Amino acid sequence: MDYSTIGDAIKDPFVLKQVKRVLSETRSLLYHKWNKEFTEESLEEYHNKILSRFQNPYISDDIARVGRTPIRKLGYNERFIRPIRELKERNLDYSALMETVGRIYHFDEPKDKESVKLMQMLKDEDLKDVIVETTGLKDDPELVDEIVKSYHNAEKDEKKA
């Protein structure tokens, strides 16, 4: 999958399905954490609004811009690992987020310093060490192993594409 904009990517049925799955998982987490402030319907409405923004050809973001700073985004309390940890704590599904994390480790953008650094780390260091270093999951070897598996699955998907 080689797209230059979010608008191009979201036209791919696989990407659209993946985005919907991630939104569903994050919606589930938000509802379980703050069900007194949100209804499932209001969260779904909000996520549909986000999805329609992604699909709007006049507001399309560059993939390189959206994907930049992958190391920061993989941080312990950032947008992927924190929801995964919290979903896991609640025994809720986080498989789409996990698949996304595996793909983030393959984000290779030569113009982004963090992407270049991450690619070099993956080349020079043990995969598990890189995952622990970037995610801060030193106390959760089970999640680290899941990310390793997701990384390798993403690698296989890239080779098929």
Automatic annotation (TrEMBL):
It is an enzyme of class 1 (oxidoreductase). InterPro entries: 6-PGluconate_DH-like_C_sf, 6PGD_dom2, Mannitol_DH_C. It comes from the Bacteria. Its EC number is 1.1.1.17. GO terms for biological process: mannitol catabolic process. One of its GO terms (molecular function) is mannitol-1-phosphate 5-dehydrogenase activity. Keywords: Oxidoreductase. Residues 1-153 form the Mannitol dehydrogenase C-terminal domain. One of its GO terms (cellular component) is cytosol. PANTHER family: ALTRONATE OXIDOREDUCTASE-RELATED (PTHR30524:SF0), MANNITOL-1-PHOSPHATE 5-DEHYDROGENASE (PTHR30524). This is Mannitol dehydrogenase domain protein.
